[in-house]
């Protein structure tokens, strides 16, 4: 029959006493022989009894070693040290919402316990949080887990799906829009939701709008060429389409070398009416973008005579071929000062959006041809689907359609309907 896992204290004391008496009666009896003899008689394993005897000698000061009291004290200190270390690790993990001051929602605390219960256990976490001013009992935790989801939790789960869909949709958020525009896009689809709710859920989902990075100066002025005066004076406002255009171009590194893209933007609607991508930046680059803008407006039956075309002082925009083309169509050239991006701030904004929403997201590109395809897709989205806060959260196409509906009430095209304007 196997020995019990733990001997009674009374049996231990009696066995020690019997070993001591046996060695007193027979001084030549060794400890090993005594524990074998007595162990067999009292039913204690000899090795266990030998250990008891040695420990008793240590406790009595008859041999060196750690006494029973010291061992118990060390064991208690080690347990306390482990508990303090675990408590510190729990507090460190919970520091994000502990330092906020106010007690977080129970759902947040429960989620924290769920995330760390495998490492620390439920009861230790609850004990540490309670000791530091955030009372929650294990029974409260388990009761919360059994409750049905609240109306807000159900609503958040449904909205999270819609927010993620709108955010990543290539026709809508494109993975670029922030909370403000995602909120607007949801309202356009008939999904009522508060802006703060969108901000909170996007933060929880790790979704954030793209941010424009540092701007680079690419303008190289021609000191010899004649420059037109500045007719804009940093007032980038227009009352109608084709009243003021702003132009600029930028460069984009590709695997096969540098590529360049030029834009022509209508200030009234923020619509990109012309653009061109090339692997070099001669006068043909902005001139082709201008030709596209003229063709787009001419196809729609619009007169561009008198449009002010504002640019920086780059040599491409002061070249004779470019200025002559402007004069042929009756456009008025306007050029800002050298080295001052504020004089062409709106065009710089379009370039910044292009870098942040197209180049950074869809790049890197193998060649100028790949960049051109990506730019084509981005410009279509920019004009047809992107919401612009500067024009009342409309798309450029909607802004122009709205204008022509107002001046021509008989014609009422539906939203998104193809029009000549």
In short:
With 421 residues, the protein is α/β, with parallel strands linked by helices. It is built from 17 helices and five strands. It has a five-stranded mixed beta sheet, sandwiched between helices.
What is the topology, as strand order, of the major beta sheet? 3-2-1-4-5
**What do the pLDDT scores average to?**
83
Helix vs. strand class: alpha/beta
Rg result: 40 Å
Portion in strands: 5-15%
Describe the global form.
elongated
Overall strand count: 5
The biggest beta sheet reads: 5 strands, mixed
Q: Please tally the helical runs, counting DSSP H or I stretches of 4 or more residues.
A: 17
Low-pLDDT sequence parts: none
The percent range for helix content is 40-55%
Terminal-residue CA separation: 100 Å
H/E element string? HHHHHHHHHHHEEEHEHHEHHH
Domain Integrase catalytic: 237-404
Keywords: Coiled coil
Function: Involved in the transposition of the insertion sequence.
InterPro entries: Homeodomain-like_sf (IPR009057), HTH-like_dom (IPR025948), Integrase_cat-core (IPR001584), RNaseH-like_sf (IPR012337), RNaseH_sf (IPR036397), Transpos_IS3 (IPR048020), Transposase_8 (IPR002514), Transposase_IS3/IS150/IS904 (IPR050900)
């Amino acid at each position: 029959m196997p020995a019990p896992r733990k001997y009674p204290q009374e049996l231990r004391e009696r066995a020690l006493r019997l070993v001591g008496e046996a060695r007193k009666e027979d001084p030549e009896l060794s400890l090993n022989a005594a524990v074998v003899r007595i162990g067999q008689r009292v039913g204690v394993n000899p090795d266990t009894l030998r250990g008891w005897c040695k420990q008793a000698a240590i406790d009595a000061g008859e041999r060196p070693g750690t006494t029973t009291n010291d061992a118990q004290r060390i064991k208690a200190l080690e347990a306390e040290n482990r508990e303090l270390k675990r408590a510190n690790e729990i507090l460190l993990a919970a520091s994000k919402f502990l330092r906020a001051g106010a007690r977080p929602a129970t759902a947040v605390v429960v989620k924290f316990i769920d995330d760390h219960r495998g490492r620390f256990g439920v009861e230790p976490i609850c004990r540490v949080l309670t000791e530091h001013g955030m009372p929650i009992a294990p029974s409260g935790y388990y009761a919360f887990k059994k409750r049905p989801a609240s109306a807000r939790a159900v609503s958040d789960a449904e909205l999270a799906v819609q927010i993620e869909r709108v955010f990543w949709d290539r026709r809508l958020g494109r993975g670029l829009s922030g909370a403000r525009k995602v909120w607007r896009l949801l309202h356009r689809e008939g999904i009522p939701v508060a802006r703060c709710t969108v901000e909170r859920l996007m933060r929880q989902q790790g979704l954030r709008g793209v941010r424009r990075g540092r701007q680079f100066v690419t303008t190289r002025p021609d000191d010899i060429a004649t420059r037109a005066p500045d007719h804009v004076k940093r007032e980038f406002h227009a009352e109608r389409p084709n009243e003021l255009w702003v132009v600029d171009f930028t460069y984009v590194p590709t695997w096969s070398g540098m590529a360049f893209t030029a834009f022509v933007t209508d200030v009234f609607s923020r619509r990109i009416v012309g653009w061109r991508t090339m692997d070099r930046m001669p006068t043909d680059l902005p001139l082709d973008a201008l030709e596209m803008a003229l063709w787009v407006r001419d196809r729609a039956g619009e007169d561009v005579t008198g449009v002010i075309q504002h640019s920086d002082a780059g040599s491409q925009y002061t070249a004779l071929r470019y200025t002559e083309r402007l004069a042929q169509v009756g456009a008025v050239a306007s050029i800002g000062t050298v080295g001052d991006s504020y004089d062409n701030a709106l065009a710089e904004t379009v370039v910044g959006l292009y870098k942040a929403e197209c180049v950074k997201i869809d790049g890197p590109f193998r060649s100028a041809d790949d960049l051109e395809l990506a730019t084509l897709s981005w410009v279509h989205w920019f004009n047809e689907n992107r919401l612009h806060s500067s024009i009342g959260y409309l798309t450029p196409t909607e802004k122009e359609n709205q204008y022509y509906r107002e001046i021509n009430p008989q014609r009422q095209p539906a939203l998104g309907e193809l029009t000549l304007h």
